[in-house]
Design brief:
The chain is built from nine helices and 20 strands. The protein has about 400 residues and is of the alpha+beta class. The structure holds zinc ion.
Length: about 400
């Protein structure tokens, strides 16, 4: 058994080598944390040989040394174990933060069960079993409550409790993964309590007071499975970096919008409304332009095979913006309405009363000038033509 969860602040110790099998070392006792249930293995050294991994195997804690190191100790020797303090401290803080976040969840989620957690180098995740939709507002509230509990400097304690007793206390959240070894071969479980905030059965390493956690920044949430909400967060330098990045971006956005961060939501909403209004006005103006262009062209329609054709060029309007008006005017302003313009390459839009196949008109033009297109009997369009709009008009008027 590792002593790490019981005495997480102890990072230097002497122990007797019980067994060494190549790079695998078993000690009489150890303060290295073996990877378990979302908390990574401790880093450090045994007699200056770097430890690459620590795992629980058949009830023993096995330290696997770095492949590069050549240990000069054997069974029976006393060695000095040193746990990397920086990484251990990070894990203690991150791990305790996950309990505090879970406690925050108890206060704002309608129903809550423990869904797991994982400590990564840059971020930590906690999975909530809940039917509550964790929206932006709720995510912000979880962050506020978590940091408030950090500021309130709540004592954190842990003790071995009879398993039967712990199972009967409904308020205890079970981290069944870090506790799975204990649950299977022991009568007791470790119960970790954040005073007046959270209580969980957990075998990880924790700080003694929530203030040691420091700033916690919630990053994002997702739904990894039915009824599960995953909340990711950062502690320490990455928490500070995330927060300053977000502040910088908010200030940049406010500066571009010509307002303050506080007024940014209103200003963005106003700009969005204004944009919608302008888009409507522009659409109306283009529609009027199409109408006026066709009115001008109505004086110079040409007759082909007994049908009246209105053929002309149009500026400043793309093919998609012509679809409705051209279909509306075909059969009314003339039997066939053709407008050619430029939208990058030259295009044409054809509307007919149905007696002339719109697709045939496009085919004739693309056969002459290249490009492609198609449509229905009464409406078709072509594009990518290697000709000027005027050339298309001249070709069709002949
Ligand atoms: Zn824990």
């Amino acid at each position: 058994m590792t002593r790490a969860p019981a005495e997480p602040y102890l990072t230097s110790f002497d122990a007797t080598v019980e067994r060494r099998d190549g790079r695998d070392v078993v000690l009489s006792e150890t303060y290295f944390y073996a990877e378990s249930g979302g908390q990574p293995a401790d880093q450090g050294t045994l007699e200056n040989a770097p430890v690459a991994d620590v795992q629980k195997r058949d009830g023993e804690v096995v330290h696997t040394l770095d492949p590069e190191s050549v240990p000069d100790f054997e069974a029976g020797d006393t060695v000095v174990g040193r746990v990397d303090e920086e990484f251990r401290t990070y894990c203690m803080r991150a791990h305790t933060a996950s309990h505090v976040l879970y406690g925050a969840g108890r206060r704002v989620l309608d129903d809550l069960g423990y869904g797991g957690f994982d400590i990564g180098e840059e971020k930590v995740r906690v999975d909530f079993q809940t039917s509550t939709d964790v929206n932006d507002a709720l995510l912000v509230e979880l962050e506020r409550l978590t940091n408030r509990a950090v500021w309130d400097s709540l004592p954190v304690s842990w003790e071995e409790v009879l398993k039967s007793e712990a199972m009967n206390r409904d308020e205890i959240a079970f981290n069944t993964k870090t506790e799975e070894g204990v649950l299977s071969d022991s009568d007791t479980v470790r119960v970790v309590e954040v005073a007046d905030w959270d209580v969980a059965a957990c075998g990880g390493t924790h700080v003694e007071n929530t203030r040691e956690i420091g700033p916690v920044t919630l990053l994002d949430r997702s739904n990894p499975g039915e009824g599960l909400t995953r909340v990711e967060f950062a502690v320490g330098p990455s928490a500070i970096r995330e927060r300053t990045d977000e502040k910088r971006l908010a200030l940049d956005a406010a500066r571009v919008a010509g307002t303050s961060v506080a007024d940014l939501p209103d200003e963005v909403a106003r700009l969005s409304d204004e944009l919608a209004t302008l888009e409507t006005e522009l659409r109306d103006a283009k529609s009027q332009l199409v109408g006026a262009t066709i009115e001008d062209l109505a004086d110079e329609t040409v007759s082909r095979d007994g049908r009246e054709w209105l053929v002309g060029t149009i500026d400043g309007v793309g093919p998609n913006e012509l679809v409705d008006r051209v279909q509306e005017l075909a059969g009314d302003a003339a039997d066939v309405v053709v407008l050619a313009g430029k939208d990058g390459a030259t295009f044409l839009v054809v509307g007919t009363d149905g007696d002339v196949e719109a697709g045939d008109v496009v085919s004739d033009v693309t056969a002459e000038f290249g490009g492609g297109g198609g449509g229905s009997p009464t409406f078709a369009q072509g594009g990518g033509l290697s000709a000027e709009p005027e050339d298309v008009v001249r070709f069709l008027r002949e």
